[in-house]
Design goal:
The complex is a heterodimer. The mean pLDDT of chain A is 95. Chain A contains 14 helices and 23 strands. Chain A is α/β, with parallel strands linked by helices. Chain B has 19 helices and 13 strands. In chain B, helix 2 packs parallel to helix 6, helix 16 packs antiparallel against helix 17 and helix 16 runs parallel beside helix 18. Chain B is globular, with a radius of gyration of 22 Å. Helix content of chain B is 45%, strand content 14%. In chain B, helix 7 links the parallel strand 2 and strand 3. By secondary structure, chain B is α/β, with parallel strands linked by helices. Classes of the chains: A alpha/beta, B alpha/beta. Chains A and B meet through helix 2 of A and helix 15, helix 16 and helix 17 of B.
Chain lengths: 491, 421
């Protein structure tokens, strides 16, 4: 374990740690562009040059290994001048079009310019090198070569993370530019991350561009529910509108976020978002919809089943279990889901598309119930007349329901989720609007936090369950999500 | 005058090379222990002739003794430094010295595969080498079980594709592996992780060509030639306003004056010495006064504020415009920067643009300061020394010939032009 001194503070680090990382442990930020903790070291931006005793010139902190007895200085005038110089070089051919650049506010050039430079450019604007701008380079990205500082993070991301090798630096000297290799497009399922790791405004997200200035955005740490991986994300929003999901890098689960996951927030304000009930194909106010659903349940005279959902939180599944046991007084319920889990693509996407298969099983452990096969059997043999479930979970027994002609009542957030044979649909608040507990494939507890408020009429699913029970003449006394999970051991 | 070690007549063919005692050193070397050969080369004080002047024997000794698997020997024949044309001449006139030197070096470091990475434009020289290697192979000096010693050594010629940067050790390795020629971060150094990730030694053509004579006559003999720590002979390529430009083999430590007057026949008729770039275009320029008595060796030139470099001596006469000259150099380095590191990628182009403005009469005094400042900001700040190679002439030209730059800034015809053209 080498021990070294950085700016007078001493630190002991594991062998192989870079000076930059060692400084980070001390809370000393060494400016950088090309360095990224999850990519190989390129050492090309030259922004992280620091003074190291006994070295005859400044060394890049990112590529220099921290060694025993090293004395590093990161704030001397020589170091600050080197940073100023690199910034000036970087801005020579940069268009400085911050007012129309989407990166403004989270731009490495702006930030470090404020920290280290603050001087007028000595280079004449008219002599700048012009390059292609606003090039669409795939489903998620726009590339502006003029703003690019050639740090090659994007090139390394495609080579090392997705291993799809779409990008490279073409030409050389100040004629260098990032481009797609011949015959490639940038749609590797993770491409949008490039907009995040691009330290400047070269790669911007087509989805996010020009929607919102970043300094207006509020940040809510939450969880992606796109699959069982349960990536930690940050929902960025303003005035009750989510504008983007960004990964919240963490050691356990994710550094990145897949392109599918980062678009899941779109459902919140999608055109098919449900704020009313649906009976057959017609929209209907919530209360009449609940009444209608309750009447159909009454009509079935106990031949009712409840199917939980691996897409719902532990709380909402627990509320459904209470609905079956305490309101419908039936044994026909199932929270027992099986799915093969594990990373499918070697990066993030899980074999299990549902986010809470493991969480639903905790509800089963507390409340018991049938297996999916047993419940399907009861439906198939006509013992069940009405099934209450969540829209996507209905798909787990789609064929059986269709064959038996069972009446289907579902909860859904968006119209697009509603299965064809649903008789009634009740809306509920999405997990961007309400908290919920999920257990990811690693068994880690993942709790969503509401980034935005659901429209007044839309309630969390547990609350809808409470109402439905009331219409069916039972009181579940669910006043909060916590009420629903009483007695459930969430590990 | 010392006898020529490298540039000899009638040794281009293998028969002629034999007649001069060629390939005897290889035979001798194969009877020695590899460690003893390295020791002999260390003793000789032979230093890298590519420009950096690193001790060759020491470099060889960096190959880890316990490294399993392949090790490589690479001959850097990507001679691209403006003003430098010694390796070309050497490969044409004495290709077997290079091949024999490589075979000895390979034996010393335990390598069975060598590459000669030759500048793409040197098509004729590549053919000469190919033919020489074929001849050496037919005589059993290259290939399997060389001279019955059990030592195998295959040698390949690889032509570059026209990038100056590929003369830089690690960029050369990238290019040789089939990638875009861009310098690698060091460490790891090539001796640990070089070609195809294996321990690799790379030497300049001229360095390797000196090895047979060292093995033949001993390290002490070689160390006695030259001056002090600068041992042996050096090929000086003289270009510019001299009567007899060309490649001259002289002991290190020869004075510039002797090189100019004795070897090159003095300045061209009617030309007066103004300045000298002593070691290829990237080395700092010396004024006539500084250059005149200077000894051409590693230490003396360093003391004079320049470098021995590749030995490319560019003689600049009165009448040459220093702004114009620097503009030409800047255009070259701007074109050849690999574009990896920020200071070099942006700085070389910026400097060229500012020099263009000065040269075209659109510049200002502030531009001169900016050019100098850009040079300063590039110096020592990049992965490889290409930024330094641009910065050193820039800073030395401005420091030593500032009035000419100022005259340009004022829009006056420069003094040099007025006098010369």
């Amino acid at each position: 374990m080498p021990k070294l001194t950085i700016d007078g503070l001493s630190v002991e680090v594991p062998k192989g740690t870079s000076v930059l990382e060692a400084a980070q442990l001390l809370g000393i930020h060494i400016p950088r562009y090309c360095y990224h903790p999850k990519l190989t070291v390129a050492g090309n931006c030259r922004m992280c040059l620091v003074e190291i005793e006994k070295a005859n010139k400044l060394l890049t902190a990112c590529s220099t290994e921290a060694l025993e007895g090293m004395v590093v200085r990161t704030t001397t005038e020589q170091v600050r001048k080197a940073r100023r110089d690199v910034l000036e070089f970087l801005l020579i051919n940069h268009p400085v079009d911050c007012p129309i650049c989407d990166q403004a506010g989270e731009c490495g050039l702006q930030d470090y310019y404020m920290d280290y430079s603050l001087r007028k450019s000595r280079f004449a604007q008219e002599d700048k090198i012009r390059r292609p701008k606003r090039r669409i380079v795939g489903q998620h990205l726009v590339l502006d070569n003029e703003r690019c500082i050639l740090c090659t993070r994007c090139v390394r991301f495609c080579a090392e993370v997705t291993k799809t090798h779409e990008l490279d630096v073409m030409e050389r000297s100040d004629g260098s530019f990032i481009d797609l290799k011949e015959g490639k497009t940038l749609d590797n399922g993770y491409s949008r991350n490039i907009a995040d790791i691009c330290p400047v405004g070269a790669f911007t997200s087509r989805d996010f561009r020009f929607k919102q200035r970043v300094w207006f955005l509020k940040r809510t740490p939450t969880v992606c529910l796109g699959c069982a991986t349960g990536c930690l994300v940050e929902a960025q929003h303003n005035e009750n509108v989510i504008y983007r999901l960004l990964p919240r890098p963490n050691a356990e689960t994710n550094t990145w976020l897949c392109d599918y996951g980062c678009m899941t927030y779109k459902a919140v304000l999608a055109g098919d978002r449900l704020s009313k009930g649906v009976i057959k194909n017609g929209l209907i106010d919530l209360e009449p919809a609940l009444r209608e659903a309750a009447s159909r349940i009454d009509e079935a005279k106990g031949a009712v089943a409840v199917l939980g959902s691996p897409w719902l939180s532990v709380e909402d599944n627990a509320a459904l279990a209470r609905l079956a046991k305490d309101a419908f007084k039936t044994e026909n319920y199932c929270f027992d889901f099986e799915a093969v889990q594990g990373i499918k693509d070697g990066i993030l996407i899980n074999k299990d598309p549902a986010p809470n298969t493991r969480g639903a099983r905790m509800v089963k452990e507390a409340h018991g119930g049938l297996s999916l096969a047993e419940l399907s059997d009861r439906v198939a043999t006509g013992k069940v007349k009405v099934v209450v479930t969540e829209a996507r979970a209905a798909g787990l027994m789609k064929e059986v329901l269709k064959a038996a002609g069972t009446r289907l009542l579902v909860f859904a957030t968006n119209k697009g989720e509603i299965p064809a044979q649903a008789y009634a649909t009740l809306p509920y608040a999405s997990y961007f609007e309400t908290p919920g507990t999920f257990i990811n494939y690693q068994g880690l507890r993942r709790v969503t936090a509401p980034a935005v408020q659901a429209p007044d009429a839309i309630k969390p699913l547990w609350e809808m369950v409470n109402k439905l029970a009331a219409y069916s003449g039972a009181s579940l006394r669910l006043h909060s999500a916590e009420d629903a999970i009483k007695g459930i051991d969430i590990k | 005058m010392t006898e020529n070690i490298l540039l000899k007549d009638n040794v281009a063919g293998i028969e002629g090379y034999f007649a001069g005692g060629g390939y005897k050193p290889l035979k001798k070397a194969l009877g020695l222990k590899p460690a003893d050969i390295i020791e002999e080369v260390k003793k000789s004080n032979l230093r890298g002739r590519g420009g950096a002047g690193f001790p060759a024997g020491l470099k060889w000794s960096f190959i880890p003794k316990d490294a399993q698997g392949e090790r490589y020997l690479v001959c850097n024949a990507d001679e691209g430094e403006p003003g430098t044309f010694k390796d070309r001449e050497l490969m044409r006139r004495n290709p077997h010295a290079v091949i024999e030197g490589m075979a000895i070096a390979a034996y010393a470091i335990g390598s069975s595969h060598g590459y000669i990475y030759i500048r793409g434009e040197f098509a004729a020289e590549a053919e000469v080498l190919e033919a020489a290697i074929a001849a050496a192979r037919s005589k059993g000096f290259i290939g399997k079980n060389i001279l019955g010693s059990g030592f195998n050594f295959e040698l390949f010629v690889h032509r570059g594709a026209g990038a100056y940067i590929c003369g830089e050790e690690t960029a050369l390795l990238e290019s040789l592996e089939g990638f875009k020629g861009q310098p690698r971060l060091k460490p790891p150094f090539p001796a640990i992780k070089g070609l195809f990730g294996r321990p690799t030694v790379m030497n300049n053509v001229e360095t390797l060509a000196a090895v047979p004579a060292i093995i033949e006559k001993g390290g002490d003999w070689y160390a006695a030639i030259g001056s002090g720590k600068s041992a042996g002979t050096k090929l000086f390529c003289v270009s510019g306003a001299v009567k007899k430009p060309g490649v001259y083999e002289l002991p290190l430590g020869v004075t510039f004056r002797d090189l100019l007057e004795k070897s090159c026949g003095g300045m061209k008729e009617g030309k007066i010495l103004k300045a000298v770039i002593p070691g290829g275009s990237s080395t700092p320029v010396l004024t006539a006064e500084e250059a005149w008595g200077v000894k051409l060796d590693y230490e003396s030139l360093a003391a004079a504020g320049s470098m021995l470099g590749s030995g490319g001596v560019i003689v600049i006469p009165e009448g040459e415009c220093m702004v114009k000259l620097l503009q030409v150099l800047a255009r070259f380095y701007h074109h050849e920067s690999c574009g990896q590191c920020t200071p070099c990628r942006e700085g070389c182009g910026w400097i060229e643009k500012l020099l263009n403005r000065l040269e075209e009469g659109r510049g200002s005094s502030a531009d001169i300061d900016n050019i100098y400042a850009a040079g300063e900001a590039m110096m020592g700040r990049t992965i490889c020394p290409l930024a330094d190679a641009m910065a050193m002439p820039v800073m030395s030209f401005i420091k030593k010939f500032r009035p000419e730059f100022e005259a340009h800034a004022r829009g006056e015809t420069c003094a040099g032009r007025a006098a010369g053209k």
